[in-house]
Amino acid sequence: MTTSRLTMRAAAGAAVAFALASLVTVPVSAQWDNWPMKNVPRLANGKVDMKAPPRRTADGKIDLQGFWLPTNPVKHLLNIAADLKPGEVPLQPWAQKVLAERIETNGKDHPGVRCWPSGIPEKLSIPDGLKLVQTPDVMIFLHESRTIYRQVFTDGRPLPTKDAQPAWMGYSVGRWEGDTFVVETINQNGKTWLDMLGHPATDALKVTERYRRPSIGNIIIDVTIDDPKAYTRPWNVQLSWTLQPDWELIESICEENNRDLPHMVGK
């Protein structure tokens, strides 16, 4: 792991810890040496040309593969509505009260304090990064945080409508609309938060993600949050990822040395 990566992760972890509780484990050394990413355009100085057009797969789809970090490492993790104006999040009255209580108690009951997984969309903003693996039938999200994976099936199967056991990150299917990859996720377990600030989610949550890769170095994700139990209408946010071209996944086990819980005492 390079010094810049350690610095970025440490800074992200410090910011999160200050606001609520740290979800980031900063390792003392790398598990893999950096290795140059293949089949990407590079500048004369050897660095990847981040502004170059994205690659395409053999079937003509935009290639979303790579190792990604949120462009702003903690902005939307701390508050998914950071880009919205006050009052633009259409909270139900009970959800407004829950959010206020979570803010007042410093988010001491956030699932991450107990090393429980994040749900969608919060998982998209975790600053540990993720590796995307793209195949014709499934898009695999390998999250460094919690060393956990997510499968987005693209083989034509529908979302499960009966007898589906609720899951932390739910069930996801994807499809292509031109150069935009569209993901729909349902059947999350209702235990997750949308962010560390405390925007609530219920088991009725449906999340739609629209992935666009305008260049090698950037992915834009337009997210629609539709949870009729917690919000009066669907609402939208936009996230951004930046490619980390020569990085690799490392193991990140929260459960092995979790020090957050004893310190989460609220007010």
Could you please describe the fold and organization of this structure?
- With 267 residues, this protein is an alpha+beta fold.
- The chain has one domain (3-263).
- The protein is built from three helices and nine strands.
- It has helices at 3-19, 75-78, 93-104, and strands at 66-70, 130-134, 138-143, 148-153, 171-177, 180-186, 206-215, 218-226, 235-243.
- A nine-stranded mixed barrel has the order 1-2-3-4-5-6-7-8-9.
- The radius of gyration is 18 Å and the shape is globular.
- The N and C termini lie far apart (38 Å).
In short:
Helices cover 12% and strands 24% of the residues. It is α+β, with helices and mostly antiparallel strands and 267 residues long.
